[in-house]
Amino acid sequence: MKNLKIYIIVIIILAAAGLIFILSYTSENSFLNPVGVSFENINDTGNEVAAEINNTKTSELNSSGKISMQDNIKLTGPKVTGNTPVEEAINKRRSVRDFLKKPLSLEDVSQLLWSAQGITDKQRERRTAPSAGALYPLEIYIAAGNISGLEQGIYKYKPLANELIKIAEGDCRKELSKYSAQPAAIQTAPLTIVFSAVYGRTSVKYGSRAERYVHIETGHASQNVCLQVISLGLSTVTIGAFQDEQVKKTMQMQENEEPLYIMPVGYGK
Ligand SMILES: Cc1cc2nc3c(=O)[nH]c(=O)nc-3n(C[C@H](O)[C@H](O)[C@H](O)COP(=O)(O)O)c2cc1C
């Protein structure tokens, strides 16, 4: 009887050890990962996938004739220290929907874009906001309406190069405002940031959970902008109510990109 007890205890211990081994081997996210790929593996391959997609996109853009290399605008910075403690920025953040006609500096625009998706680890090409598997599905467009040193137009942010690529010339704020809630905010803000996402970059690894991950990431990136806005003495509102197809067309997004969030930025009234 005593031997049987010892035998059962040994079996329980071995089973528990086996379970712990399996769980740690398949990584912290194995239950949340429908395609069964560990986060660690994705981190390594993920960057390759993202880099591949980015390269393809650039060459597609070039061949479509919309973009030429001369239209690349070098951004400044980023500044990685400041005078506003994060608690102060969190406490001060408030939605503002009316802006002064005062221009934004290109330096401030650079800083805002960096806060959204800029590079914080050049070697590993990691960005300011967390990204599932480091696959980076987000793309950032701006409608430049009143920025010193930057012609009015639509631009796309290229985080690795810290550049803007010109997509179209002219003031598109009025057009964009027609398809969105808070048209007055978009018309008066010197800058409007539009977040879009390529869901496929994330779904290739995470299957049906990709949609959730992409939306969470948009929240991370846009919150960074909300706090950076305060640190620069500016204001913004996050807009989720807009006509997807019309916004996509106005901002001249690629077919595989979907607009997710709009943030007019400027000096609040
Ligand atoms: C997902 C999301 C979508 C939003 N969409 C809009 C919008 O379409 N128009 C708008 O004026 N504000 C929008 N807001 C801003 C909210 O109205 C605002 O955050 C809320 O009233 C709280 O005010 P506060 O941001 O000043 O704290 C949105 C906020 C979130 C989080």
Structure characterization notes:
This protein is of the alpha+beta class and 269 residues long. Helix content is 44%, strand content 19%. The chain has nine helices and eleven strands. It has helices at residues 2-25, 39-64, 86-92, 106-117, 173-178, 183-188, 199-206, 210-231, 244-250, and strands spanning 72-74, 104-105, 119-121, 126-127, 138-144, 147-148, 153-158, 163-169, 191-197, 235-236, 258-266. The chain has a seven-stranded antiparallel β-sheet with strand order 1-8-7-5-9-11-10, sandwiched between helices. A hairpin with a 4-residue loop joins strand 7 (153-158) and strand 8 (163-169). The N and C termini lie far apart (83 Å). Residues 21-70 have low confidence and may be disordered. It binds flavin mononucleotide.
Short characterization:
The protein is an alpha+beta fold.
Give short descriptive properties of this protein.
binds flavin mononucleotide; 11 strands; 269 residues; seven-stranded antiparallel β-sheet; two-stranded parallel ribbon; NADH Oxidase; alpha+beta
Topology (elements, then pairings):
Blueprint: H1 2-25, H2 39-64, E1 72-74, H3 86-92, E2 104-105, H4 106-117, E3 119-121, E4 126-127, E5 138-144, E6 147-148, E7 153-158, E8 163-169, H5 173-178, H6 183-188, E9 191-197, H7 199-206, H8 210-231, E10 235-236, H9 244-250, E11 258-266
Parallel strand pairs: 2-6
Antiparallel strand pairs: 1-8, 3-4, 5-7, 5-9, 7-8, 9-11, 10-11
Helix pairs in contact: 3-8, 4-8, 7-8
This protein binds flavin mononucleotide.
